[in-house]
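User: Some background: our group keeps a shared notebook of sequences we're curious about, and every so often someone picks one and asks for a predicted structure to add to the entry. Today it's my turn. The entry only has the sequence so far, pasted here. Could you supply the structure so I can complete it?
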Amino acid sequence: MASTPADVKEYPNSYEFVIDMPGLKSGDIKVQVEDDNVLTISGERKRDEVKEGEKYLRMERRVGKFMRKFVLPENANTDAVSAACKDGVLTVTVQKLPPPEPKKPKTIEVKIA
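Assistant: Of course. Here's the predicted structure to add to the notebook entry:
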């Protein structure tokens, strides 16, 4: 299983994972969120069928299955994940959760005994 290089970017409202996937169709790529915080990108690049009378002199392009797993930060919204593949580049965007509101101080009434 081949490891595919990836770029990971952070924006104010999202995280973006960018992976080169030349020659793959969207049906060959699977994007999943596992265990509520693990982004998994996997797929398979198949070898072209060899035609009669054809033989390879050199075969350098990688074929086979690939998988990448990324542990998402706590503020990643795993319900807001989108993926798009354009010109052989897969971009997976994970939105961030809004920051938690700061806790207001709790006032305790002092009773006089």
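Suggested note for the entry: The radius of gyration is 23 Å. The mean pLDDT is 88.
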